[in-house]
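Quick start: what a row looks like.
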Amino acid sequence: MKKGLVLEGGAMRGLFTAGVLDVLMENKIEFDSCIGVSAGAAFGCNFKSGQIGRAIRYNTRFCKDKRYCSVRSLIKTGDIFGAEFCYHTIPEKLDKFDIEAYDNSDIEFYVVCTDVYTGKPVYHLCDKVDNDAYEWFRASASMPMVSKPVKVGGMTLLDGGMSDSIPLEFMVNKGLDKNLVILTQPRVYTKEKASAMGLMKLSLRKYPNMIKCIANRHEMYNKQREYVFEKEQSGEAFIICPEEKLPIGRIEHDEAVLRKVYEIGRKTAEKNLDRLIAYLK
C-alpha cells in the first residue's frame, strides 16, 4: 500500500495546513509521496525536511517585515511576497531550511505550477534542494496580478492553484492507494467566479490561455472538490479541513491571527488523529 499527501493552497490559509503537518510529524505519520500547491508547496516542503514548527515560526517572525510581504515590495519588485527575501534570505540565512534532511528523505515531493502560455498544470518532482527548487516553490505560490511569472525549467510559471487546486487525481493516477487531503476551506465551501477578471485580463494580457484558465477556475475547483469527496467515500482519500471558514485573508500581518489559524490546524489534526492512523493502517 502506498500513501499520499495532498496539500491545497490558499495563501495564508496555508498556516492551517502547517498546523496539521506539525501534528503529523510529531506523531511520526509518514507518506510515500506528497504534492503541494501554492502555499501547500511553500509550507509543505517543511514536511519532507522534518522541520516541525518552522512555517509558523518564520511567518510570525517576519509578518510585519516589508521585505517579506508588502505593497512596497509589490511596487519595487513586482512581487507582493519578496522573492529574494522569502525564497533565499530566509531559508539560507535567517531561518535555515534543512537541505540535508530534505535531500535524504525518501518522500517524493511534487509541486504544481501553471504554465502561463498554455494555462495547463505542470507537475515537478523536487527531490533535491538547490536554487531551482526554491524557484519551483516560488512559482507554485506566485499569485497572478501580485507576482511576476517565474522562469524555471525552461518554462514561465505562476500559481499552481489556478490550474490544479487539489491534485488528488494526480496522486491516484500515480498509484497512491490511500491519500490524506488537507483542504483549507470547509466542506460546505463553493468557489464563485473570479470577481477581478477585468484587472486579470489587463495584468495577464500577454497570456490569453492563462486568462481562460483563471476565468474557468471556479468550475475546475468545484469539480475537484466533488472528486475528493467521492474518493473519500470509496476509501481512497481521508480529508482534514477546517470546520468553518478560517478567520484569515490571503495576506495577513497580524501575528495573533496567524497563530490562531495555525492552532486551528493543530486542533483539527488532533481531533482526527486516531481515525487517520486507523485509515492509513
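That is the whole record. The first strand starts at residue 3 and ends at 7. The chain has a mean pLDDT of 97.
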